[in-house]
Predict the structure.
Amino acid sequence: MTSTYSLPQSRVPDPRDAPTLRWAILGPGWIATRFVESLHRNTSQQVVAVGSRTAARAEQFALAHGIERAHGTYDAVFTDDAVDIVYVATPHTEHRAHALAAIAAGKHVLVEKPLAVDAAGAAEIADAAGAAGVFAGEAMWTRFLPKFDVIEQVLSSGVLGPIHTVLADHGEFFTRDHRIYDPTLAGGPLLDLGTYVASFAYSVLGRPDTVYATRRPATEDIDGQISAVLSGPDGHAVLNTTILTDTPTTATVCGRDGTLTIPGPFFMPGSFAVTMRGGGTVEYDEQPGLQVDGLHYAAVDAARTIDAGRRESSIHPLSDAVATLDIIDRIRASISA
């Protein structure tokens, strides 16, 4: 690569040009708030309903976001004829059951990551959606960002040469009153934060042959930090995730001929750089962003996919979500051995 090298352009279409779907929100919490804000700010998608375990909470969320209908049960969402697709934003431990219920009611479904708490649950969702002929997807929003479309093109081009090393880290400090410390809600860093690093490693290197992991506890019931080495035929991935401290949250892909470096937080909108072994660096320049600046990309991909008559994303197919959770299952098995 020389200084005249140009990165490819993002192929992601304008989010406002996507066909409009009528969305329902299941679980009006922190991530659902940002999802709705992202849709309203960046797309023509319509959020027409919200469902919660209590009518009061659903009504409060609906009032705050200008949503027409508030349902005090989840079942009422599934039977709402005005809803095309359900965004499942309930706790991780409920993703499988709520996705399956929506699918059984004939609704398309986009499930907040992780798709389920394990690979078996994710595969069950995929099988149910296939049998019902409805769309199902995981809202692994990072994979849909324009930045990551450019990264995928760089990696696919082979310009870095054979990939030998992937490094990815995601750590964020949480106080003990946060739900991430609740073991009944699948607490700990692995599903909330570790999903990002596992998904990134899989997207670059594929399924590892071996997984070795070690842990540091946060309490008697949950992990505080997990580090893992994934080994495959083409290279190694070294991953770290923690709720005990803030970490750089960077990611790096190292090939024989060059290195791609993503500053933290690597999974959000922002820049990255490609540096060649012989010298020369080219940068992807993008304004840093937050969830509200990117969550909508998974939604509009779902809208385009459904409008085209397909039942899962070509950018982040269900097989990728299942494979990522298989890596997480194997990390769990390693630290339990």
Remarks:
- The chain has a mean pLDDT of 96.
- The longest helix spans residues 318-336.
- The chain has two domains: 15-140, 143-336.
